[in-house]
Amino acid sequence: MPIGLIALALGGFGIGLTEFVIMGLLPQVAADFHVTEATAGWLISGYALAVVVGALFLTAAVTRFERKPVLAVLMLLFIAGNLVSATAPDYGLMMAGRIIAALSHGAFFGIGAVVAAGMVAPTKKAGAIAIMFTGLTAANVLGVPFGTMLGQAAGWRSTFWAITGIGVLALVGILALVPKTGPGEAAAGGLRGELRAFRSGQVWLSIAVTVLGYGGMFGAFTYIAFTLTEVTGFSAATVPWLLILFGVGLFIGNTLGGKAADRNVDRTLLVVLAALVVVLVAFALTSANQPMTIASMVLLGGFGFATVPGLQMRVMKYADGAPTLASGANIGAFNVGNALGAWMGGVTITAGLGYTSPIWAGAGITLLGLAVMALAAGAARKTAAARMTAARAEAPASADAAVPAEARVQEAGTPVAATRA
User: Which long-range contacts (CB under 8 A, 24 or more apart) does 387-396 make?
Assistant: First the structure.
């Protein structure tokens, strides 16, 4: 494994912690700033929308620069945002800190995914991306639960101070371990070349699947602390340990999903999305049962994150030759899904449908994502079949052109001498 992947995973760990730890601390943050649960949820949705802006516009702005220094600058932006969050005196500045940190998120993962894929052989690209995203899974397995416990014990601000320190360590790791891009590599094709990738219908279908497939899982997870305490009956002190189970599922799903996607991306995504719909429905139906909820937490994390390497690899595959901006756009799509899921969950809760309603909303969103994935996979198969048919039709003519005229006449049974007469 290239050592640079460790540095990218470290950066992913810090960013993943910023994105997800707020969920376990949402009740404390809402109480501290005297806002409702739905308003506090905008700290998640606002972050996600800012990721989209960063993924598109920051990535577009830096396509001509070498990728290593760009990653370092993005990590500095991440550190600054978390400093603002840690010291925010009111809800408005807290939101500002979340937005500043979020601007680095999409561009970091979008560019980092391209760098990770470039470090390994073509048959191992999805696996390399999965290793980079292991930082996100580690953030959930270790960072989020312990960050939640730290926040409960010493105040939620202490968690953001800790994240700031992790950002500094990640910056050092990137500067020390990520290889420098070759001369001109970062600028190959330029912004115009990167934009050409969006002419592909498969790129847009892949982005749509990302929004819906990941958004469904995130919609169920956004208000999970309320579901676990108000519906299942767990104590608030138990929530961090349950988040560890969710994180274990993420780690397993990310690893296995990356390996499966290297074999067949479309088939992997179809199977995993279908399984995720089933898990969400089962979770909603059994959320009052503690043992079933524990099982659902692991499976939700597993199938939810098993989609990530394949979704990222698929959009890069169909943007072949100009993957940087498309990769960043897909990272933005993950966070559009985050915002969509969090918003839908907040709407259902505000409507008085209870704390299981975000899970049902997530199941519906994921089902729609599965339908779009089936459409995309079918279109890809038809295109591949048409190309194969065309190639076979051209093959005999190409073969004939390569055979000397005398040999073709001999094959037809006409003496060569007769053709010369």
Answer: none
Distance separating alpha carbons of residues 230 and 107, to the nearest angstrom: 37
Residue-wise pLDDT for 310-329, tens only, equals: 888 888 788 766 667 777 77
CA angle, residues 80, 84, 86, in degrees to nearest 5: 115
Long-range interactions of 187-195: CB distance < 8 A, separation 24+: 187/63, 187/64, 187/65, 189/321, 189/322, 190/63, 190/64, 191/60, 191/63, 191/64, 191/325, 193/321, 193/322, 194/60, 194/63, 194/322, 194/324, 194/325, 194/326, 195/322, 195/325
Please return the burial class of 404, using the count of CB atoms within 10 Å of its CB with bins 0-12, 13-18 and 19+.
exposed
Is 160 in contact with 29 (CB distance < 8 Å)? Answer: no
395 phi, psi to nearest 5 deg: -60, -50
Identify the CA nearest to 214 among candidates 118, 126, 312: 312
Any idea what the Cα angle at residue 68 is, between residues 129 and 106, rounded to 5°? Answer: 55
C-beta of residue 228 within 8 angstroms of C-beta of residue 351: no
At 177, the amino acid letter reads: L
| 8 A C-beta contact, residue 104 and residue 53 | no
Length of the chain: 421
Nearest Cα to 66, choosing from 176, 178, 192, 196? 178
CA–CA gap between residue 314 and residue 205 (Å, rounded):
10
Q: Between 362 and 237, name the one with better pLDDT.
A: 362
Instruction: Identify the pLDDT of residue 82.
Output: 93
What pLDDT, in 10s, does the model give residues 361-401? 999 999 999 999 999 999 888 877 877 777 777 765 555 54
Dihedral over Cα of 160, 164, 166, 171: its sign: positive
DSSP 73-135: HHHHHHHHHHHHHHH-SSHHHHHHHHHHHHHHHHHHHHHHHHHHHHTS-GGGHHHHHHHHHHH
C-alpha–C-alpha distance, residues 287 and 109, integer Å: 33
Q: How far apart are CA 42 and CA 29, in angstroms?
A: 12
pLDDT tens for each residue of 62-97: 767 777 888 888 999 999 999 999 999 888 899 999
CB count within 10 Å of CB 30 equals: 18
Token representation of residue 173? 């790791």
Q: Which residues of 118-142 are buried (b: 16+ CB within 10 A; e: fewer)?
A: bbbeeebbbbbbbbbbbbbbbbbbe
H-only helix segments in 184-289: 190-196, 201-222, 224-226, 239-263, 265-286
pTM: 0.69
